[in-house]
Amino acid sequence: MHKTSRKITIRDVAKSAGVSITTVSGVLNGLDEFSEATVKKVWDVAHSLNYVPNKGARNLRNDSERLKTNLIMRINYKSSCLTEDSFSAYRTHLFDTHAQKNGFFATNYHYDRLEGFRCPLLLDNLVDGVILGLPHPEVIKVIKSKLPGVLMDVSVSAEEAGMPVVKMNILDGCRRVFAKHSKRRFAILRATPEEGVYVNDDYFHIAARQAGMEYDIEFVGSCDLVMPFAPEIHSIVMAEAAEKVYQLIRRKKIDAVFVTNIVYAKGLQSYLAGKGVKMPEDFVIVSSNYRNEALPGIVSIAYDWEKLMSTSIDVLAKLINKETISCMEYLIPAKVDR
User: Fold this and answer.
1) pLDDT tens by residue, 70-114
2) DSSP state for residue 261 in the 8-state scheme
3) Which pTM value belongs to this model?
4) Measuring CA to CA, which of 83, 116, 187, 327 is 20 to 30 A from 37?
5) Is 211 helix (H, G, I), strand (E, B) or coil?
């Protein structure tokens, strides 16, 4: 964790951000009279310098040891129309339940990259540890400098992030699927990663090779149908990608597709069914099923959210209590519905 030889003051934040002390005070106190760029800059600098504005919170920290609050936080993406549903509530419930079992209070923070990292609880030093569910390097850097953290369900290695990672073993799930469908010709449909975000979805290619599938690397690459995960254009781009898959099926180039997002898998299935494609008899859709939905006609590699959440919080509890953890990367077995 980050240590400084002296306490950071509001003057230090103002100087680094290139604004006045009054502006820093106004931004951190939630006044809405400043531009979005100024607000983002002040919050970014305050977090990066480990500034603690609240005197009571500042007293919780001294040079030898930080006093515990028994509050842990889960940081995830800000909800969109594609994700705001009962599934989000289910994950929040799991976080609250397993936090309580470990003697913690729980709180959630939803991060929006355009707005920046505006988290008063972290700034005031009132959180003991964080479960981080997004791969943004700027957020990972802040958490690493302040307090214990665990990455959960993020496509980044522990080595890259510099903190423990708990995630589903999708690679093993792919191996088990491809052992059954090794003679099929696959394409892959995935989302376009954000610029500057850790992403590693090569498990499809790795598993395919390990399963002994006979396929042309260049062919699979040409069918790497990348599309953005943006709510406002999702339906349009989904239809375009589905049509590309359909044309490949008509030309008998492929008879299976691996989809990295369940929203895409369901959209593709609906489109192909409308074109008269029989699934799974003539064409197989394989998808990582993070929502654990019932998906007739789709080969599902499902998440075990109960185990994923409980393991993440168990590891975080050990870090908070300064206990030794057994490893830096924890892989939770996936449930494969064939």
Assistant:
1) 999 999 887 654 445 788 889 999 999 999 999 999 999 988 877
2) S
3) 0.78
4) 83
5) coil
